[in-house]
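To whoever is on call:

I kicked off a structure prediction for a single chain this morning and the downstream step that reads the tokens threw a length-mismatch warning. I double-checked the sequence; it's 102 residues and nothing unusual in it as far as I can see. Pasting both halves so you can look.
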Amino acid sequence: MSLTRKTIETRPSTNIPFYEFQPSEVEYMVTNYGNKIDSIFMDWKYSDDGLVRRTDLIFKDKVYADEFDNDQVIRQLAIRKLEYCDSNNIIRTSEDFLITPL
């Protein structure tokens, strides 16, 4: 049963950039979780006005999602991103969906 994490970020102006992970941080995620995630940050969708960005992170199953969430490096990266969003008035929501195969 895969798990999809849908994250929506809404910024107040296109003058405020969305948070972007550094190449070394993305490399850490790919190295440690690339075989456990079907899609890593590659599925960005933007609204026509550029104020909203949606990201789908698709884990192969919930166990891998839990492992990812409990990784101390990932936790620190998430805190940094949340702090950036808070300080730049970027509203961020995230929801998990379990996908059951037919």
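Update from on-call: the warning came from a stale cache, not from the record. Cleared it. Sanity check on the structure: The longest helix spans residues 72-87.
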